[in-house]
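Marked as duplicate of an earlier ticket. Keeping the data here for the record.
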Amino acid sequence: MANTHLQKTFSPSANRTRQTISVWVKRTGGLGTTQAIFSVYTGGTYYAHLRFKSDDSIQLYNYNDINIRTNRKFRDTNGWYHIHVIIDTPNSTSTDRIRLYVNGERETDLSNTTYPAQNGEIKFGDSNLHSIGSYDSGSYFDGCMSHFHFITNNAYEPTLFGETDSTTGEWKIKTSPSVTYSTNSFFILKDGNSGTDQSGQSNDFSVTGGTLTKTEDNPSNVFATLNPLNYTSSAIAYANGNTKAQYPGSWIATLGTIGAKAGKYYWEAKVVSGNNANLFYGISTDAVDLDTSPQNKAGVISQHINGDRYVDTTYTAGAAQALVNGDILGVALDLDSSPKTVKFYKNGSLLTSSSSVNLTSTFDDEFVFPIFIGNNSSASSTWEVNFGNGFFATTQISSEGTNASGIGKFEHNVPANHTALCTKGLNE
């Protein structure tokens, strides 16, 4: 969401002793900074917020009388967290007046444990400005949100909003919980980038300070992105949900967050560079040192945008067509055929020379990941990738190509029997 946030002022106040907050979030940036999920601010010390703290813990705070904060840190930038808060101040057991759950599990290892007085009121739901994704026009949430429920007058258990998958054992979303929405309740971000309330209470939120961009990535299907946790020595600047990467002044790489040992996958990226000398793309194992010229290492097949290529340290000049700014490349990875192959595309067509590259034995029994490499020493060096979300940074694809799997949205036609690199794609 970057500096984008949603706001609404309620009137009149609702019940503020029993409430439920339930939201799915995916962090994509800003680890180590304070980021608000939900807040209300009335000036001075009269405020409340649910947020990630600068140490990546989760905190529920209500000015002087509530401070619940986890010891656990939440730094996963690939998966979705279901954050669920039960506010039940009439409860006779003080430690049950605020209950915080993440992915269906109650958080009991807490660094702060200030609970409200019995029948005490919280600020959420009062007649003041409420914000989603920020606090007082700051502390912006960097990531994605989905299925945000705020319910007054009822303290609902997390099992109404999620359940454990009987096959995988993972916590998964229930998209249509059976709950009652009272005054100042809302249900937004249900199936897209809209602040329109789906609860029947008409409590629509307005988008403020930016653009709310839709993503195919959701709690039921996690798409690959660029992985901001890859580098160790030099910083890559990530943006737009980790689908855009701007590189520092040395050769450095980032992998996708999802790799595979089997299956057929397709992804795209747009060339955004000051010249044609500073970008590579391709595939890699996860054992490669990404900080020191990874393009010519064993375990990497990398295609330079000028047409040169490395295959497991073997260099071939002019192996394929060059790419220029604005071109959209495609990568089709086939891990099922014998031999395994990777194919490179330019604006929907196979590169004219040596389009299909056989994977070497280095890739046997290894997870294979997308890799994007840059060097900003002499020109702006940026990749904008589309793993199926249908956007290059904030630019939506102009015309959706065919895709027999129905998973993901791409600019150009997806090769036969290939699909997006995402959790549903892995199970195709």
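See parent ticket for discussion. The chain has two domains: 5-208, 237-426.
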